[in-house]
Amino acid sequence: MKSYILLVVTIFCFLNATGQKFEQLAKTPPMGWNSWNKFACNVSEDLIMQMADAMASSGMKDAGYEYVVIDDCWQVDRDANGEIVVDQKRFPHGIKYLADYIHSKGLKFGIYSCAGSMTCAGRPGGRGHEFQDARTYARWGVDYLKYDWCNTTTQNAKSSYITMRDGLFAARRPIVFSICEWGTAKPWEWGKEAGHLWRTTGDIVDRWDAMISIVDKEKDLAKYAGPGYWNDPDMLEVGNGGMTTEEYRTHFSVWCMLAAPLMAGNDLKNMADETSAILKNQELIALDQDSLGAQGFCYRDNGGYQIWIKKLAHKEKAACLLNRSDEEKTVQVDFNVLLKANDDYWSSEPYKLDDYKIRDLWEHKEVKPDKALISIKLPPHSVKVFRFIKRNNSL
Ligand code: GLA
Question: b/e per residue, 247-268, with b = 16+ CB within 10 A?
């Protein structure tokens, strides 16, 4: 009888050891740097090492950025055994060497592949090689995998990503799994089962209108995100030159309100002071990384002007006033209303403005309005972000 029970337990444990993702990873949205937005296919060992150096020396690492991710174009072929072949010219010492170097800097290492037969840049994809590639990634010391959706023809999205998830789990190295399916098959509905984050839209472009059109697509997705599973509105364009500093501040603020993964996409070696100040704004990053893991939602929308609210741990809250229009706007702001801006309004323990300090997260100072209702000027394409900090919370 005893041995029968043992057998049943062993079989149960075995079955349980597959068919799952690594939990306890990405409890807050992943932060790092990815090569694509700035360098596209122009990646090399030198470049990635320089970016890892810059991540550490520029203060980005101290600000919380952790993963250094090579996007498309590091791979050129498969060998006779089906093993992925690295571009020898660009990565002369191989990928493990690079991963070791990145780890030696106290950072983590990420790589890219694709669920289809070829990547978006036409390099060999992962289809049919999921378990083999996962073992290779584990051997190399990969900590993060971005998995794209090009050349997938009739593949089913959910089962394709589940297959790769199982490959990663079987390879036994905890790897954050970033689903890059562009929102086509509603990954917010199943992504949590397969991975830790999922792209919700097509690719970001370094332009105001393109960035803001991504924001529009996030409006109804808040309920799908939480600690360990995130909507991903794509990587950051901050510092790449296509938007003004004000617009980049807005881009970064909204991403933090959305609890979005924060993957910088600029040249970390040559960062203007304004770029650095945006990407390293600790008060904004704290919103993004808040332990409650609640994605912000659009509380008021009158087209050109929106108010986004994000619930934070310990009954705190953030509000982002967003002027999307091309004109300056003067808006009436009632801090009482902002603080109570959700269901908690009716709760037995209502929020009381007197219990809170109000902090302006770009001015980095406390706002002390004479009365709860004030008027605020918002330049075109700008934001104001406030945090309601509970007076008796030790922050
Ligand atoms: C797709 C992805 C991008 C990038 C490129 C690489 O377009 O959405 O983020 O990875 O492929 O080819």
Answer: bbbbbbbbbbbbbbbbbbbbbb
